[in-house]
Amino acid sequence: MNAPLAPANGGCRTAPVLKERGQREVFCGLTGIIWLHRKMQDAFFLVVGSRTCAHLLQSAAGVMIFAEPRFGTAILEETDLAGMADAQVEIDRVVEQLLARRPDIRQLFLVGSCPSEVIKIDLHKAAERLSAKHAPHVRILNYSGSGIETTFTEGEDAALACMVPVLPETDARQLLVVGALPDVVEDQMLGLLKAMGIETVTCLPAQRIDGETGVGPNTVFALAQPFLGETHAALERRGARHLPAPMPFGDEGTTAWLHAIATEFGVSEEVFAAVTDAPRARARKAIAQASEHLRGKSIFFFPDSQLEIPLARFLTRECGMTAIEVGSPYIHDAIHGPDLDLLPAGPQISEGQDVEKQLDRARAARADLTVCGLGLANPLEAEGLATKWAIELVFTPVHFYEQAGDLAGLFSRPLRRKSLLKLEAAE
Questions:
Q1: Domain 17-24+290-426 -> CATH class
Q2: If you classify domain 29-150 with CATH, what class do you get?
Q3: Is 266 left (phi over 0), alpha (psi -120 to 50) or beta?
Q4: 319 is in an annotated binding site
């Protein structure tokens, strides 16, 4: 089925990994609410936190003051922090008010934050108590989005992992696709799988709780996002089996991801080719056009989203770039291994972060493009380095064939901008 082969030099799966444990520069896991609340149409995310948490979510989501999004913050006041109020009573009161106002809520997530973690509010206990009271109409779960406990994309991982234990049991032979995708991208993926004859496909998260998402011993699951380590473990505990594959970024990654599923479900080479040949050709053409400014350029990844390894594989193999360092907050062999197999040997692979040490390496390397968080981008730009905001790669549709050119374009634009600025300065 034209599955891509590992490079002759053996890839990076067995390469030495630089493990760093120091100060890190990433958003907290609350940020995942911004895309999850749009995906899950009957869910509400109630953050038990401070005004800072509320301002973060409000500004990150760009929600106007008169909008009514599917998230909010139960703000901890001075009496809460001083232990003068009963936190459990207060949570019950806020939840009752919320459910009375929003009867459309079917899933309510109590989300821990740095303040609630520090003063040790037991949100798990609250979720169990409230879920028993409001079942079966509302399912109440909890997870931590605290910056103490989680980094940027781990918020989604924690949210999905807390859902897995309460998914219905099923004996059906099915494919479960795990990871939040924009609706248009999910529809494209489901269309490709249906065209291959694979129709028993469910998604986690689903748009609504009353969907048919279940899990059991005949469930096989494919991850659409590389940052779902806890969810991966939770699904395996439920008896589901993981289909390891590169992440579906670009032509090669998408084809390999679909190939793993097609092999599992007995799709013939002829059918696989008939379904994928045309979109593959479109993807290759779009990548070639968008990567004109990328060929021969170098790239340096700070650890941020756990997308770094599959993106490095895409950029080096399909866009002609050279990776100097590929940093990731965490490296999970069962998830990142297939991409590491394909990533050409050479870059420093690093896990975790000691930001000052990594900044020194980035400055010494002076890569043509540095992928990093918002807090590091402006200072590095001031030093003459072209940068790419890592957060944009999570918020932008980048999966599968039809988005492959857009994905390459996200990296080429900063380099084109820098070239234009140089030309203007020369004039």
A1: alpha beta
A2: alpha beta
A3: left
A4: no
pLDDT at 57: 85
Angle at 88 between CA 84 and CA 94, to 5 degrees: 100
Q: Is 12 among the annotated ligand-binding positions?
A: no
User: 406 in helix, strand or coil?
Assistant: helix
CA atoms within 13 A on the CB side of 217: 1
The CA distance from 75 to 64, in Å, is 19
pLDDT on residue 386 = 95
CA 427 – CA 422 distance, rounded (Å): 9
**CATH T-level assignment (fold) for domain 174-279:** Rossmann fold (3.40.50)
**pLDDT < 50 positions in the chain:** 1, 3-4, 8
Whether the CB-CB separation of 377 and 389 falls below 8 Å is answered with yes
Coil, strand or helix at 409 = helix
Which pTM was predicted? 0.93
| Structure tokens belonging to residue 372 | 């990093």
| Residue 143 three-state SS | strand
Which alpha helices (DSSP H) does 72-173 contain, by range?
A: 78-81, 87-101, 114-118, 123-134, 154-163
Q: Break the chain into its structural domains and give their ranges.
A: 17-24+290-426, 29-150, 174-279
Confirm or deny that 53 is annotated as ligand binding.
yes
What's the pLDDT score for residue 1?
A: 46
